[in-house]
Automatic annotation (TrEMBL):
<dbReference type="InterPro" id="IPR017896">
    <property type="entry name" value="4Fe4S_Fe-S-bd"/>
</dbReference>
<feature type="domain" description="4Fe-4S ferredoxin-type">
    <location>
        <begin position="289"/>
        <end position="316"/>
    </location>
</feature>
<protein>
    <recommendedName>
        <fullName>4Fe-4S ferredoxin-type domain-containing protein</fullName>
    </recommendedName>
</protein>
<feature type="domain" description="4Fe-4S ferredoxin-type">
    <location>
        <begin position="263"/>
        <end position="284"/>
    </location>
</feature>
């Protein structure tokens, strides 16, 4: 499958990687042409932005020109399919990209839950991303909660295993986004095709879980940094460094769902300054203007201990 944004072209991509890279590029406002021999492949996603055209070897929709195909795609917010001859005779050129507008209500899968569980290993990543004012592209599962308060930092999420490819497309369209946009996904969904594409565009992936991705990163030329998912300050520091570097960086945040330990924490009200730092974690175990930690909800992850600036969080 070939992937083209203007004069830039990438070839040899599998259908899934190419399609979600195209959606990432269209999220950035670019027009993307995919040329495929996979005649049966047409994306079923409904939450797409316009600007993606798929040229197939079999008869498809008829357009007078490639421009007409893109105009239809943009007007109707869908991926259009066109005959190969239309693409060959047309051009995917476009002028300056429109100003990026965040529209998570359109490009993020719905999520009924309102907050992450206490001790969720994704919380540290989204807390750091929110603090650094980063765009984030997620995939599914707990990453969807990045759109909720207090983070509200998730720009797009099309399904599990799609975040890295979508980031590659976004950065291909807007190279400057390499320094303020990340992909957040489960480590088990990180794949070779997406990482190899990111190696060409550059990008930072925050992977959460307990999988061993060292060989995968080595094979794809990705710089790997591993740290505890509950080290919220460490995640922020590593993100800053990765976003300032070139190439592809993978930040492996090690943690498991529902991690629990014997430790529990409480807030010493004599030390607490009511600054709100712990509340910004969005942890359901912490509540109140004079914050308190519910011992029934606390799982002992220690993130509140890390962000408190006045040493008010102590072991219960």
């Amino acid at each position: 499958m070939k992937f083209r944004i203007g004069k830039s072209e990438l070839s040899g991509l599998d259908s899934k990687t190419a399609m979600y890279a195209a959606l990432g590029a269209s999220l950035a406002g670019a027009r993307v042409l995919l040329t495929t021999d996979d005649a049966g492949f047409v994306p079923a996603a409904s939450r797409v932005t316009g600007g993606v055209a798929v040229a197939k070897p079999e008869p498809a929709e008829h357009f007078a020109s490639l421009d007409a195909a893109f105009e239809t795609s943009e007007r109707e917010d869908r991926v259009v399919t066109l005959e190969r001859e239309t693409a060959m005779a047309g051009s995917a050129e476009q002028g300056e990209l429109p100003k990026y507008r965040k529209q998570p209500e359109r490009f993020v899968l719905p999520c009924e839950r309102e907050t992450m569980c206490a001790g969720c290993p994704y919380r540290g990543v989204f807390c750091a991303a929110s603090k650094l004012w980063l765009r984030t592209i997620g995939d599914g599962g707990c990453t969807l909660l990045g759109q909720k308060k207090p983070f509200q930092t998730l720009d797009a999420a099309w399904g599990r295993g799609t975040a890295a490819a979508a980031l590659a497309g976004f950065v291909a369209a807007r190279p400057e986004a390499r320094h303020d946009t990340i992909a957040v996904m489960g480590a088990g969904d990180l794949d070779e095709a997406s990482l190899r594409l990111l190696a060409k565009t550059g990008g930072t992936v925050a992977a959460v879980g307990d999988n061993d991705v060292s060989k995968l990163c080595t094979d794809c030329g990705a710089a790997l940094t591993e740290l505890d998912a509950y080290d919220v300050n460490g995640i922020e520091a590593v993100l800053r460094k990765a976003l300032d570097s070139e190439g592809v960086s993978v930040i492996m945040c090690r943690g498991t769902c529902g991690k629990s330990g014997e430790k529990r924490y409480r807030i010493d009200q004599n030390r607490c300054r009511r600054c709100g730092a712990c509340s910004r974690l969005g942890c359901p175990a912490i509540s109140g203007r004079s914050p308190e930690i519910d011992p029934a909800e606390c799982v002992g992850c220690g993130m509140c201990l890390a962000v408190c600036k006045c040493s008010a969080v102590v072991e219960a």
